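Input.
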Amino acid sequence: MRASQVTKTKREGQSWGIRKEAEFDALKGGGGRTFAGAAEHYLATVSATKRSLEWERRRFAAMAEHFDGMSLAEIDSARIGQWRDHRLQTVSGSTVQREANLLRHLFTLAVDEWRWLDRNPFKGVRMPTHNPPRHQIWTWQLIRRVLRADRAGKTAEVMRAFHVALHTGLRLSEVLAGRYDPARRVIELERTKTGGRVLVPVTRRAARVLPQTFTVGANEASTLFSKLCGELLIEGLTFHDARASALTWLARRVDVLTLARISRHKDLKILLSSYYRESAEQIAARI
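Output.
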């Protein structure tokens, strides 16, 4: 690389030369690749194979704004820490953890597979703790308020998806993409969060609200559901809480291994701590 600059004094010229040499060394360390270019390569070679492509595209776009114009070699642990602190001003620790996992994987591939870097800038960076597990559960009063709302179009589709989730424990994206087989009374999911093709058994009650067809996408559906809850003055509850509500109710009817088969949790600790939300008072009232 070559660069030139006319300065008024010899000292200014020497200072400029030192800075330029440092910049060239930084670019050489990452093969001259910028963070934005690395993100595009990741999206094309890694994200394209996953369900979370659009989410990862949006996250990389936001990160590229923070690391605007930086080469990969310029991003060190201090800059990662600045990004972490900046995100914590507007989002929760769990969100930062999830985004950091994406960013960390990019740098891991840049070091171990692509050979673009010789060190991972995440080494030594502290990450915030996850949020405490949610405890909210949908009550039948609030469920009726959602299901009886007078809405049409895609919002009505989201309401039907919510109804299905309450009976099956499926995630929003799974409700929209799953294929119901009435002969076997199972829902087939091709690509799930845990990976691979799985068959999810459904209860007889759930079979009454299936099958359903949907044209709305998962991201749009999530936005529409949040908007609907706001219009209905429902606070502190999300669509994903329907999954926890369904699994909490199913826990009264099936054993824990059957419940784990329905929910597809490999770690029973997660099922207990995050998705089984019956309170101690509720348990005491029925034993």
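The chain has two domains: 31-112, 140-285.
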